[in-house]
């Protein structure tokens, strides 16, 4: 594999500074989903933690570094999950956290950012305007800007999910931290142990999770296909991946607020080109069908971004027939009324 | 503490035979619930596994013992969760599993028992009739009867939840398995470490979870108050606990199907008298309000039994004001239409 910005040793080190409440999340086969999808499906559940998304992994890395030797004030733009996670991680370490978000963001996310004691500033525009405003605040106030997916800590935090996906590869009782990469590769070769899954489906937004988990797969389990999934209504990064250069869009139109960016970051795209095997776009109705399947057959309430993997299978059953996919259920912060409107059986 | 039928060393041993997919479940503070409840609330989430309830812990113990040196055929009565879990655990070990259930049981639970390859027999009556029928089958066919809460393995499996609740008590890196009881007690005394919670709320049905988790608390963290919660519509065990002898009821009337027994088992009551600090009854509307709070503020779909702890706080806010409760969210197997009918925002 060519060099991405990521590194397995750093990812293992990141794992050691993350609060355990975000680690070792459930990974389980969900057979009730399988008749409807035509393939084996395992869920990696990133919602059962204090901020209900995977973003705490990255903000723990960011905040622990800042608490050690950085400025005590920090700002980020967020569709809601990063901001909530940074507010949580910052509060525990006495950091002063500012979050900039679109005033159209999910209300539950904004409420929880405020409840965690962060300063919340709303912009009258979309997430890209929030990014600009956050950068301005950082510049004017001289505080640390956390840029999701660009800042390596956010990718390394997300990448720890990948290490946990591979735990089944490892001999019992031997921790990821204690296993050298070479040893692991050798062991895998010797025993012929295959991972119990052959495909990982990753929601694609800014790219932190896709490049992070993708890097781990390509480094430690290169046989696993890494497929990124984005909504047709917010296709910038996927189009960029296919054309191998940054493609921006003028607007987004999707309920999957967590992945609705318009301006991919070049360095992140470069990494994604090295670790993703494919990037696919899915329709809104497939996202909703995926959310409904996760409710009906897995008793899981998820936000739209977390249903992208299931949506990808629904849109291309032939491709996945007979395979074993892991889908990362990455967040569950929804406005319940909106959620009920999407999936509601009672109308 | 007087002797219950349980034993910490056996519970630790049980933990070693349980498939890891059921262990180390999420335990996290859920602050979004707290303004509505007036106390600190942590969730121990037992739903993110292949059978979506805590029952897999017990059936793993049962099935691993049977696979080693027992009969290869087994029968149990179940409201649905035990049967599903026994079907899962038995399938993995080549056991022949029969489940007897009421024909009024939750459809989703029955479907999943069948899907896991167990033989399902329905009786035209309630759970107590299913218990009688399962005992008859065991007698006539000479196969092993698994009796929930009476069979120690079911209590020991559930008790492993208690060990995990106490992990925060233990020094980092030291595993429960490696810590002797005396050492742990000494360490706790020396460091003055208090558990980060002072109350555990446990759904009370047959009593496996209440006696199991209660035993662990009384043995290793006697300062934690153990409160059992049962629906007013199925109060037999709670009434028995208060009167210190078995009290049966003629019928049950509750949506909390998982805990709707009428005939407490004397040996289980004896244990419960030794480990529970209180047993309370809650109204159906409080159970529904609890389910709705878990959906609105924790993005969790739960079955009614799993909302009993929240219901208990809702019914007696003064008692819990300022305290830190852990509530075990013990199952999420619901018929989605019924669930939507209970909690639905859209009607």
Automatic annotation (TrEMBL), chains A, B:
A Pfam cross-reference name: PALP
Cofactors required: pyridoxal 5'-phosphate
Domain named Tryptophan synthase beta chain-like PALP: residues: 22-331
Keyword DNA damage: no
Signal peptide stretch: none
Source taxon at top rank: Bacteria
Keywords: Lyase, Pyridoxal phosphate
Annotated protein name in UniProt: Pyridoxal-phosphate dependent enzyme
């Amino acid at each position: 594999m060519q060099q991405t910005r990521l590194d397995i040793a750093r990812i293992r080190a990141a794992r050691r500074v993350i609060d355990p409440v975000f680690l070792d999340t459930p990974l389980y086969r969900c057979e009730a989903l399988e008749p409807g999808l035509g393939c084996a499906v395992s869920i990696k559940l990133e919602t059962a933690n204090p901020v209900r998304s995977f973003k705490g992994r990255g903000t723990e890395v960011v905040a622990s570094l800042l608490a050690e030797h950085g400025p005590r004030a920090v700002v980020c733009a967020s569709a809601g999950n990063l901001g909530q996670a940074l507010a949580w991680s910052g509060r525990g370490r006495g950091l002063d956290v500012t979050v900039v978000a679109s005033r159209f963001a999910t209300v539950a996310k904004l409420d929880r950012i405020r409840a965690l004691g962060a300063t919340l500033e709303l912009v009258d525009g979309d997430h890209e305007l929030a990014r600009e405003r956050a950068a301005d605040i950082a510049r004017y106030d001289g505080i640390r800007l956390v840029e999701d997916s660009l800042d390596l800590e956010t990718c390394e935090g997300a990448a720890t999910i990948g290490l946990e996906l591979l735990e089944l590869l490892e001999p019992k009782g031997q921790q990821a931290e204690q296993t050298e990469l070479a040893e692991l590769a050798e062991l895998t070769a010797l025993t012929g142990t295959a991972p119990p899954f052959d495909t990982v489906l990753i929601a694609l937004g800014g790219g932190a999770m896709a490049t992070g988990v993708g890097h781990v797969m390509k480094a430690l389990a290169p046989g696993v296909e890494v497929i990124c999934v984005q909504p047709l209504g917010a296709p910038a990064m996927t189009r960029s991946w296919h054309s191998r250069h940054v493609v921006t869009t003028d607007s987004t139109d999707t309920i999957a607020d967590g992945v609705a960016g318009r301006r991919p970051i070049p360095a992140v795209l470069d990494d994604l080109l090295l670790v993703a095997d494919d990037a696919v776009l899915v329709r809104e109705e497939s996202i909703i069908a995926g959310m409904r399947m996760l409710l009906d057959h897995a008793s899981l309430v998820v936000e739209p971004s977390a249903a992208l993997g299931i949506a990808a299978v629904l849109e291309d059953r032939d491709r996945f027939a007979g395979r074993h996919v892991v889908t990362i259920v990455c967040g569950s912060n929804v406005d319940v009324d909106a959620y009920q409107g999407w999936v509601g059986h009672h109308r």
